[in-house]
């Protein structure tokens, strides 16, 4: 994140698929427990990294159903600002 400290904001992750549209995954604020979307488990790990001023998402034991376009979002000046998105594809079984 540029122009502001990541720890000063509520940060969220979303996944978009052709089948399901956009799904809220997790929201996180510094020094608070993450809040998960409906049906989303703790294998989606969001972390605020103050040293690099970044917000990351780790997907534990990724599955084919995790494929999609992932967006981070920051609550800033009473609105969500979304990142460009990152496409995730899962290889294997």
UniProtKB/TrEMBL annotation:
Keyword check for Transmembrane: yes
Top-rank lineage group of the source organism: Eukaryota
Main location (coarse class): membrane
PROSITE patterns reported for this sequence: IG_LIKE
InterPro entries, per database record: CD8B, Ig-like_dom, Ig-like_dom_sf, Ig-like_fold, Ig_V-set
Domain Ig-like: 1-74
GO molecular function, one term: MHC class I protein binding
Annotated Gene Ontology cellular component terms: cell surface; membrane
Keywords, in A-Z order: Adaptive immunity, Disulfide bond, Glycoprotein, Immunity, Immunoglobulin domain, Membrane, Signal, Transmembrane, Transmembrane helix
PANTHER family according to UniProt: T-CELL SURFACE GLYCOPROTEIN CD8 BETA CHAIN, T-CELL SURFACE GLYCOPROTEIN CD8 BETA CHAIN-RELATED
Name of this chain's protein: Ig-like domain-containing protein
């Amino acid at each position: 994140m540029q122009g502001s400290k990541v720890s000063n904001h509520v940060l969220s992750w979303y996944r978009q698929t052709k089948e399901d549209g956009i799904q809220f995954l997790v929201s996180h604020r510094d020094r608070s427990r993450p809040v998960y979307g409906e049906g989303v488990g703790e294998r989606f790990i969001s972390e605020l990294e103050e040293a690099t001023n970044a917000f990351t998402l780790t997907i534990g034991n990724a599955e084919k159903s995790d494929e999609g376009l992932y967006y981070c979002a920051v609550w800033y000046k009473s609105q969500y600002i979304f990142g460009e998105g990152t496409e995730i594809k899962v290889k294997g079984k």
